[in-house]
Design a protein that fits this description.
Layout: E1 4-16, E2 20-23, H1 27-41, H2 43-51, E3 62-63, E4 67-68, E5 71-74, E6 77-80, E7 83-93, H3 94-106, E8 110-113, E9 116-126, E10 134-139, E11 146-151, E12 154-159, H4 167-183, E13 192-196, H5 198-204, E14 208-213, E15 216-221, E16 225-229, H6 231-240, E17 253-259, E18 262-264
Antiparallel strand pairs: 1-7, 1-9, 2-6, 3-7, 4-7, 5-6, 8-9, 10-16, 10-17, 11-12, 13-16, 14-15, 17-18
Helix pairs in contact: 1-2, 1-3, 4-6
């Protein structure tokens, strides 16, 4: 069994002092930033994580999109204006979060995105919520699920949406494999089901987002959903990310808390 912290999730707040432009496809910059910081603390562990990972290659961390107080998309760039920005990273593996934080607390006090740097003003852990057999979530980064298909003798990824028949089972099997990677055993209770918010989906019409990751096109979906089943599996999805490619910035969620008969973020 790997060493775990209990639902360790970090929120990073940074400041923007003047207008800056960042590429709309910035995921690979954030992934590289994370591995760079990890490598400053333990190169061997970072190499293991990057090249091998846990179980079937899971890195067991995820991160959110970047959020800005003031921004707008212009073509293939995001124009950000003076104010605050924030970003989340989460993992069930204590060593990942601890090694990530250490350089930030010592000297590395800038978030680097390509050629842009943002001064970090606050870093703090977020308290892990309680999880029951039914929980609602909003997405902080797109959810990716796929199946392999053969075309002209080559294997391609077919990215799935909630309308696809394979969606439910791919969601469930992915989470079970993550559980096996963390705990070195099958879950005693493998019940898990995703229930998309179809009212939201029907209102929005389009829920897909195409991300270019260093030339590879990855299609994910953004929509609120409920997960029903084993609370341990639900918690693991919250910590490590739901779906695939979590370490590339996909599948991070925020729990929607229920209060006085209504759901409150």
């Amino acid at each position: 069994m790997i060493y775990r912290c209990d639902g360790l999730r970090i929120k990073i707040i940074f400041e923007i002092n003047h207008e800056k432009h960042i590429p709309i496809n910035y995921n690979h910059y954030l992934s590289s930033y994370i591995y760079t910081l990890l490598g400053k603390v333990d190169r061997d562990f970072t190499s293991f994580l990057h090249e091998k990972g846990y179980g079937k290659g899971f890195k067991l961390f995820t991160f959110s999109q970047i959020f800005f107080e003031k921004s707008k998309v212009v073509g293939d760039t995001i124009h950000v204006y003076p104010g605050e920005g924030w970003w989340f990273i989460s993992s069930p593996v204590g060593e990942i979060i601890e090694n990530f934080i250490f350089p930030l607390l010592k000297a590395e006090d800038y978030l680097i995105i390509g050629r842009n740097s943002f001064f970090i003003t606050k870093i703090f852990p977020l308290e892990s919520p309680a999880f029951g057999e039914k929980e609602k979530f909003k997405m902080l980064s797109p959810l990716v699920l796929s199946v392999g298909v053969m075309r002209s003798g080559k294997l391609y990824h077919k990215y799935l949406t909630p309308w696809d028949g394979e969606y439910q089972e791919r969601f469930r099997l992915n989470l079970i494999e993550k559980y096996k990677a963390v705990f070195d055993e099958e879950p005693k209770d493998d019940r898990i089901e995703i229930k998309p918010d179809w009212n939201y989906i029907n209102r929005r019409g389009r829920i897909t987002k195409l991300v270019d990751y260093k030339g590879t096109k990855i299609r994910g979906c953004i929509f609120p959903f409920e997960v029903a089943g084993n609370p341990e599996l639900i918690k693991l999805g919250y910590e490590a990310g739901f779906g695939e490619l979590n370490s590339l910035g996909f599948g991070m969620v925020e729990k929607i808390e229920k209060k006085r008969g209504r759901f409150k973020k």
